[in-house]
Design goal:
This protein is an all-alpha fold and about 325 residues long. Helix content is about 65%, strand content about 0%. The protein is globular, with a radius of gyration of 22 Å. The relative contact order is 0.10. The mean pLDDT is about 95. Bound molecules: benzoyl coenzyme A (BYC). Benzoyl coenzyme A binds next to helix 2, helix 6 and helix 9.
């Protein structure tokens, strides 16, 4: 059993029906899968893909907000923003570590990011143009991230699920931090409230796109839900997010930029829910495939950071070699 779940050089696997059924039975029984457990190659591949993309999103996600660290309007705002951006870096590191437990190296993942081969969340390819965007990013982007990640705390893969618990605690603080910026601006001057509305107008649709394509167009959802990597479909989470966020916009006195947004009493077993207007999927795929406003700049910034850090990696290696030589001599 333990030798199964391996991928041959030609991409084939040696998985028997019995092996796959035994694995599915563990998933169905809500057992957590741990790094040394046997697992189908497809399960491992899906996790490496998703956790890798998630890690990259956290790391690239530091850039749009890092852009405002030097221009925060007060010391208090600056301290909170710095801490938030550092938290995102920490999330990236937990996630790279979780992916490493599946046999992929951090170097390989980094190479795939800076070469443009790996995906990361589309949302981070939009620019942050003014201070209100810091409020809207915290409120909407971290809000969408939590909606997705709360479900991931129950992911069947143990290291990913455990990483998500701490990430969610921090993201929920980030969301409140963003909402509080929006609240302050909406209670400020007319110009400030207009900035808040403008940020919502620009970031609403990209935030909805964070949840991925509609269920019928989502290549991986069905299998990922069967393996309990995903607990909810893309549309289900998007709808939960809209239902939670519209009342928050109303409290701010802001208008959701969707003329087709409608309440439907019959949804969610009679509890009701919003129905949203059409999402521009052409824009989504353009951004995902590298042609958004900020894609090139984001990758260039990551590459620059990697190149600038070369001396640290070299020094750490030289130190490790010196230490090993000293230990060998003792
Ligand atoms: N952007 O079959 P589907 C954060 C890709 S960071 C780009 O539905 P899946 C934060 C998808 O990868 C938030 N690509 O895929 C950080 C797939 O392509 P491949 C990041 C997207 O995996 C700093 C293809 O489209 N959160 O929280 O079943 C500051 C087909 O999609 C996107 C996560 O990564 C997108 N929006 O479902 C603030 C959460 N959507 O791989 C906040 C973990 C889809 O076949 N990830 N694609 O080439 C997930 O939950 C799932 O991977 C997704 C997509 C729901 C995103």
């Amino acid at each position: 059993m333990y030798s199964q779940g391996l991928i041959g050089a030609d991409g084939s696997t040696n998985e028997t029906e019995e092996f796959l059924a035994a694995f599915q039975a563990r998933i169905d029984a809500e057992e957590k899968i741990e790094p040394n457990d046997p697992m189908p190659a497809g399960y491992r591949r899906t996790l490496v893909r998703q956790i890798g993309q998630h890690a990259h999103s956290e790391i690239v996600g530091m850039l749009p907000e890092g852009n405002w660290n030097t221009r925060a309007p007060s010391l208090k705002r600056k301290a909170a923003l710095l801490a938030k951006v550092q938290d995102e870096g920490g999330h990236g590191l937990y996630l790279y570590s979780a992916a490493e437990t599946l046999g992929v190296s951090r170097e390989q993942m980094t190479e795939e990011l800076i070469s443009g081969k790996a995906k990361y969340s589309s949302i981070f390819n939009y620019p942050t143009l003014n201070w209100a965007d810091m409020g809207a990013v915290g409120w909407l982007v971290d809000g969408a991230a939590i909606m997705n990640q709360i479900a991931l705390c129950r992911c069947s893969y143990g290291p990913y699920a455990r990483a998500m618990i701490r990430v969610c605690a921090e993201e929920s603080f980030h969301q409140r931090q963003g909402y509080e910026i929006m609240l302050t601006m909406c209670n400020g001057t007319k110009a400030q409230k207009d900035m808040a509305q403008d940020a919502l107008n620009r970031l609403w649709w990209p935030a909805l796109m964070m949840f991925g394509p509609h269920d019928g167009d989502s290549a991986h959802s069905e299998q990922s839900m069967k393996w309990k990597i995903k607990r909810f479909s893309n549309d289900a989470l998007r709808n939960k997010f809209i239902n939670a966020t519209v009342p928050q916009a109303e409290f701010l006195g802001l208008t959701i930029p969707d003329p087709d947004l409608n309440w439907d009493d019959t949804l969610n077993n009679g509890a009701g829910g919003y129905v949203h207007g059409p999402i521009d999927w052409d824009e989504f795929w353009r951004v995902v495939n590298g042609d958004g406003v900020m894609n090139r700049e984001r990758l260039a910034a990551r590459k620059r950071a990697h190149d600038d850090g070369a001396w640290v990696r070299e020094a750490a290696l030289a130190h490790a070699e010196k230490r090993a030589a000293r230990m060998a001599a003792e």
